[in-house]
Amino acid sequence: MINVLFICLGNICRSPIAEGVFQNIVQQAGLTDKIQCDSAGTASYHIGSLPDRRMRQIALERGIKLTHNARKLNGDDFYNFDYIVAMDEANFDDIRNQSYRSSGFYFPEDRLFMYREFDPERQDAIDVPDPYYEDISMFEEVYEIVERCGIEFLEFIIQKNQLRK
Q1: Which of the following is catalytic: 13, 14, 38, 54?
Q2: Of 52, 77, 119, 130, which is the active-site residue?
Q3: Phi/psi of residue 39, each to 5°?
Q4: Integer distance in angstroms from the first to the last C-alpha of the chain?
Q5: Digit-coded pLDDT (tens) for 105-140
Q6: 8 a catalytic residue
Q7: Strand order in the sheet with 112-114
Q8: Per residue, what are the HEC states of the chain?
Q9: Is 124 among the catalytic positions?
Q10: Does 38 participate in catalysis according to the annotation?
Q11: Strands 83-86 and 112-114, sheet pairing
């Protein structure tokens, strides 16, 4: 089983939508017996909370129900997940630093990614924007970004791990 962990700051907007969308893409590809995913935050602001209501609304409008309860990244995650995917550079750095503090080594670079590395429409932006203080249109944009990234990321995992659909 290949385990993927999506990370943002509070685990209520970007990482749970990335998790939900990716899970849906994996299901559509018929690979749920080979790939599973989860999400977490680098901060503990919202532990136990459902995703932001606006993010749940956008997901539900597209047939995805987000039921994840926010949690904080922990040391076990570096052993339990094959891939860790950050939504922005600040969280990417926090993940690397925490991996070193938790285990004495940095999580391998070939298994730690910025999600927008997989965005075929990305130009200069490397971060998935944080919609928390924005209007609903930013939540819609984030959904579109993580959907594009999810499709490409799944193809990467399939090729890297020689999976068959």
Answers
A1: 14
A2: 130
A3: -145, 160
A4: 14
A5: 888 989 999 999 999 999 888 999 999 999 999 999
A6: yes
A7: 35-41, 2-8, 83-86, 112-114
A8: CEEEEEEECCCCCHHHHHHHHHHHHHHHCCCCCCEEEEEEECCCCCCCCCCCHHHHHHHHHCCCCCCCCCCECCCCHHHHCCEEEECCHHHHHHHHHHHHHHHCCCCCCCCEEEHHHHCCCCCCCCCCCCCCCCCHHHHHHHHHHHHHHHHHHHHHHHHHCCCCC
A9: no
A10: no
A11: parallel
Considering 8, 13, 37, 149, which one is annotated as catalytic?
Answer: 8
Q: Which two tokens stand for residue 78?
A: 């570096």
Predicted confidence (pLDDT) at residue 142 exceeds the cutoff of 80: yes
For residue range 58-114, what is the model confidence (pLDDT) as tens digits? 999 999 999 999 999 999 999 999 999 999 999 999 999 999 888 778 889 899 999
Domains of the chain: 2-160 (3.40.50.2300)
Residue type, 71: R
Within 10 A of 135 (CB to CB), how many other CB atoms are there?
Answer: 9
Q: Tell whether the model's pLDDT for residue 46 goes beyond 90.
A: yes
123 is written with which tokens?
A: 């130009």
